[in-house]
Amino acid sequence: VKDMHSITLQVNGRHHELVVEARRTLADMLRHDLGYTGTHLGCEHGICGACTVILDGQPARACLVFSVQADGASVRTVEGLADGEALSDLQQAFSDHHALQCGFCTPGFLMLIEAYLSEAGPGASLSPEQARELVASNLCRCTGYQGIVEAVLATARARRDPGGGG
Amino acid sequence: MLLGRGRFTADLNPTSRTPEPGLLYAAFARSPHAHARVGAIDTENALKADGVVAVFTAASLGHPCLLAMLEREEFQVTRMPILAGETARFVGEPVAAVIADDPYRAEDAIELVEVDWDPLPAVSSIEQAEAATAPRLHAGTDGNRLVDLLMFDDDRVAAAFAEAPLTVSATFASARVAALPLEGRACLAEWDDRDDQLVMYTSTQVPHQVRSGVAQALGLPERQIRVIAPDVGGGFGLKCVVGREEVAVAAAALRLRRPVRWAEDRQENLTAAFHGHEQRYRVRAAFDDEGRILALDAEIDCDTGAYSVFPFTCAVEPLMAATELPGVYKVPAYRARGRAIATNKAPAAPYRGVSRPQIVLVMERLMEKAAAGLGLDPLHVRRRNLIGPGEFPYTGVNKITYDEGSYREALDLAEQQVCERGWLAERDRLRDGGLLAGIGYACFSERTAYGTPAMSQRRMRMTPGYDTALVRMDPTGEVIVTTGTCGHGQGHETTFAQIVADRLGVHPDNMRLRQGDTDLASYGWGTWGSRSVVIGGGAAGRAADIVASRLKNVAAQLLEASPADIELAEGTARVRGDEGAAIPIAELARVAHFQAHRFAEFGSGGLEARATFDPPGTFSNACHAAMVAIDPGTCAIRLHRYLVVEDCGVVINPVVVDGQVRGGVTQGAAAALLERVCFDPDGQPLTTTLMDYLAPTAAEMCDIDIVHLQTPSRFSETGAKGMGEGGTIGAPAAVLGAINDALRDLGVSLDHIPVLPQDLSAVLGVTGAAR
Q1: What are the residues whose beta carbons fall under 8 Å from the beta carbon of A44, sequence distance 6 or more?
Q2: Which residues lie below 8 Å from residue B154, measured CB to CB, with a gap of 6+?
Q3: What's phi and psi for B725, nearest 5 deg?
């Protein structure tokens, strides 16, 4: 017999009410109950970070969170980054700096970095070492990370100095 | 992809093809033993569990298997059962497939499958497998050798050693590693009632070989199977072979006439998918007193795991290693024996580089050891042996012809860059700061884009190599290119568009690449072996040339000019030397389709053409330089600087090329510093999570600087050479060389990868350098 719970949450500003099994992870709920398949599962034990979403303002491994723990929470996924078809500054920087190849890890990196930069605020400066340390939270098997680090630095620079030509 | 709209296999839902569309989920009950007889399998409790629809075993599926064959007497045939029915040969081997209405319930129920196991003694290393009393994995093998080939022999070898001033003997080893694509394997199969066809979405590099494998295993005609690769989250070789789980899911969908999905979890990926690169080289090399190599003699043993993978077989590593060991160096006399040795571990599949990371490491270490023995500069010893300018095409003792490359130039430029970028002073500064620091080099070439002329030497029953492209222009002037190659992050959409658009005179944005669908593409060989841009792109270029000539005929008729005077550029067909005589290509496309009666060419295929390309192969080359810093207290090794001088012929897209190099170097450096799949002596895997199997993060890597040389290939349509693996091939040797340079003053050196802190602790402890 399944142990079912009724929960409500916001995903990318949209209200959802649903009934989930107690053991269902936030990642599976987002992907398969609500259709936000941009959140990817790379290891299901919290190491690779492909499933990173922003949970009440903080980056979180959606594979390590149960859906019931997100009851009442506000979740942001990769689908909520762009404004319609217009890429966010961070997404555009990923494209400009060849920060993705197969694209599987990309949503997790985007949400990790967005959460960090948002919390740091637009005036924050970021050294190359700090950017590398941030990027070291997640795994990418294709790029060697250099493009991702460059995209982080370019986005942070542009947010600090919007007229600076990035 | 950036918007989160990629479509990977586990994101897909079934279509309306199936009469009963409710998606089912597969989970596999797997062997807990490295070697055991499979007794009775009791599925009753599993079948009674909530949500379970079916449980399949080898017996209930009729004992299907995958059979990979090499047509050589020295090859021992082994069948890889889709589900183990009689014997399980490694921990993680699937014995039953549970199909349920929910993935959590499917996993619950695999615990309820009861197997009467009869454990057998297991072998988990080459040494164990070769022992006289070792248990045999497969009946009839000698020393568990699935292949034992004396590939090259030469009477001159013994004489050269007898007279040589210097003989270097050493054993080199590289650990078993996992390709570790971020997306594990995954598959969704559904039965299409209307088309009488099994449709499989699968995360693969080789859709047509999946189709062939499933057809052979399940006894279906190939047209009855359609394999589609949606977005693929990395492969690196792990997905260029056919997985038994893919066949099992296909069989379940076929039996149940319902869609079935399976997505591998990371533990399955690390234990029950495929591994590679576990090799041992026992090598002797003879040198003259100026450091010229006189003879090379190698015994090459590859730990191939329990089975031959489909379609490449277990011979892929030893054949590559024995054939290509001399590499960029002029070796006058050569003897090499290559073996694939079965052990109770997951099967080895091709993994990025296939044996070349190891053979480059061996050759570079031999150069360094010879230099040390003779008191010479190791870079001078390399230069004395490199195939030099003016010596191409060079046919080696291994019967391989190396096309034009820049082996000497790449080394010279790397050394110059290392000096100009201040590495030597930096190494001194690190040393002054109490660290051990060193710089290492690796010179190598990378045979890419093997067509059937090269592949047929291996004598595989399924010999890969050619590829076919279809180029079509639609009535609005847009271009659709269909290829049998199957990109998954290599930027083929961009590169193919550049090749084709350039020939048709249209903008690359007006072209779309269709790949990864066996119903759309002609039989092709997918994406691996650094083949796609040269072979697939070459076929597309040839097909585009045919379409371009037809466009010119149409334009010539409309503009009343000779086809030879028509040029296609910037979306327009123009008459050379006549500014006024021009017509948009979109207009040509429109009239060619809708006014076909005006153009005789339409009798010969209109604005579409198919072409095949099957080149002999072409060698890219590179020289890598690495600097490491070692903390003698903690024995932590840090990659400090990295430089690549890369020559892949004509660079079609520098951003894509640099991305491939950087990703490749990261995998190769990690193989030298971090990664290894471990087993205990009974064959129990010890690296089953990403906490035990250490993949590199950004913190372990440094920036990778890249400098390009361009020596065009005569054997490709565009002058480009393949380059998908070079980063991984060169990095282990360069990093190991840097570690040994750091250890040089201590009088110790290492000949294996990965070099872990405990290895350094052992040697530094002995020399007293660690305090």
Answers
A1: A25, A27, A63, B265, B266
A2: B295, B333, B334, B335, B397
A3: -115, -15
Kindly provide the ipTM of the predicted complex, given to two decimals. Answer: 0.97
If you average pLDDT over every residue of chain B, what do you get?
95
For residue A160 the two structure tokens come to 């600090």
At B600 the pLDDT is 72
Please report, for chain A, how many H helices and E strands are present, in that order. 5, 5
CA–CA separation, B97 vs B94, rounded Å?
Answer: 8
* pLDDT tens digit sequence for B156-184: 999 999 999 999 999 999 999 999 999 99
| Residues in chain A closer than 8 A to B664 (CB atoms) | 144
- C-alpha pair distances (Å), B607 with each of B34, B210, B592: 57, 31, 7
Residues of A whose CB is below 8 A from B204: none
A89, A21 in Cβ contact below 8 A? Answer: no
Residue B294 to residue B446: CA distance in whole angstroms:
23
The closest CB to that of B2, out of A31, A44, A91, belongs to A91
Q: Is the dihedral of CA A73, A74, A76, A77 positive or negative?
A: positive
What CA–CA distances, in Å, run from B194 to B16, B201, B255? 11, 18, 16
Instruction: Output Rg (C-alpha) for chain B, integer angstroms.
Output: 27
User: Confidence band (pLDDT; 50, 70, 90) for B142?
Assistant: confident
Q: Which residues of B are less than 8 Å from A81 in CB distance?
A: 3-4
Return the residue of B nearest to A36 by Cα: B4
Around Cβ B429, how many Cβ atoms within 10 Å? Answer: 13
How confident is the model over B599-613, as a mean pLDDT? 81
For the packed helices B423-432 and B407-420, what is the interaxial angle rounded to 10 degrees? 50
B263, B266, B699 ranked by CB distance to A45: nearest:
B266
Spell out the residues 6+ positions from residue B162 whose beta carbon is closer than 8 angstroms to its own.
none
Q: Is A44 left (phi over 0), alpha (psi -120 to 50) or beta?
A: left
Global pTM reads 0.96
3-state class percentages of chain B: helix first, strand second, coil last, to nearest 5: 35, 30, 40
B87-88 sheet: strands from edge to edge: B87-88, B36-42, B114-119
